[in-house]
Design goal:
A hairpin with a 2-residue loop joins strand 8 (about 195-210) and strand 9. This protein has about 240 residues and is of the alpha+beta class. The chain is globular. The protein starts with a helix and ends with a helix. The longest helix has 20 residues, at about 220-240. The protein contains 6 helices and 9 strands, in the order H-H-H-E-E-H-E-E-H-E-E-E-E-E-H. Strands 1, 2, 3, 4, 5, 6, 7, 8 and 9 form a 9-stranded antiparallel sheet that branches. It has one domain: Protein Transport Mog1p, Chain A, CATH 3.40.1000.70. It has helices at about 5-15, 55-60, 65-70, 100-105, 140-155, 220-240; strands at about 75, 80, 110-115, 130-135, 160, 170-175, 185-195, 195-210, 210-215. This is PknH-like extracellular domain-containing protein. It comes from Streptomyces sp. NBC_00119.
């Protein structure tokens, strides 16, 4: 049984709010309400698909504070080995996703992550902040990772999670984003049940630029999720692969 505190911590890690000032980034597709979606180019066909990067190289390609906002506060960069062992939904009760979850669990890669506060004086957990993570793998494995994430969301669209207080339900959706990087998906999570969850949608983009996974969390603001992810993808392509 998972405690409520642990569940909240996992949800908080996943639902970091993001923003960016990356401009229109190209034409993009039309989003909800007819607005243009941010876009970023990929590097497939021009980059070595076997190339991998160190944690230090990934760290240097993370967004700078000024990309988040003037005076934004940047927290310390965390380096380490990426795995699926923490946060990002609780899939353990979904039998249909067991194979995909097992394969994801075995995937490893160097990673670098950082969190920013657009308002350096913000202290409340509901205040906006930007979370970005870069992970390096061979391009084929990064593509397989995104394929498995799609399979997991489609197989386990509704998952019951035990807490000390009461069971809650996680509702998962996934949509492709054809204009971001080489491949990209927008993941939507809604949690209902108990006293703390009202079913509000929270968003996260997972995309790849070559063999670099770019993961950006942007809480309940879909537009900020997409703009932050596009800015991060453009920077990763330029700094790591020399894309123009």
């Amino acid at each position: 049984m998972r405690s409520r505190g642990a569940g909240c911590a996992a949800v908080l890690l996943m639902l970091l709010a993001g923003c960016g000032d990356g401009g229109d980034g190209g034409s993009g597709q039309r989003g909800e309400g007819g607005s243009k979606q941010p876009s970023a180019s990929g590097v497939d066909g021009t980059a070595d698909p076997a190339k991998v990067f160190t944690g230090a190289e990934l760290s240097a390609a993370l967004l700078p504070p000024e990309a988040v906002g003037k005076g934004a506060k940047a927290f310390e960069v965390a380096l380490g080995l990426f795995d699926q062992g923490s946060g990002r939904g609780d899939w353990s009760t979904c039998a249909a996703g067991r194979d995909a979850r097992g394969e994801l669990w075995r995937m490893r890669g160097a990673s670098a992550e950082r969190t920013f506060r657009p308002d350096p004086g913000a202290v409340d957990e509901d205040d906006p902040f930007v979370y970005e993570r870069l992970v390096s793998m061979p391009a084929g494995r990064a593509g397989r990772y995104l394929e498995l994430r799609r399979e997991l969301h489609e197989a386990c669209g509704r998952v019951t999670v035990d807490t000390d207080a009461a069971p809650v339900e996680e509702h998962h959706e996934v949509r492709p984003l054809p204009d971001l990087g080489d491949e990209a998906v927008l993941e939507t999570t809604r949690t209902t049940g108990g006293d703390e969850y009202d079913g509000s949608a929270h968003y996260e983009v997972e995309l790849r630029v070559g063999g670099v996974l770019v993961i950006v969390g942007a809480g309940p603001d879909r537009a900020l999720t997409l703009s932050s992810a596009a800015e991060a993808a453009r920077r990763a392509g330029k700094d790591l692969y020399g894309a123009s």
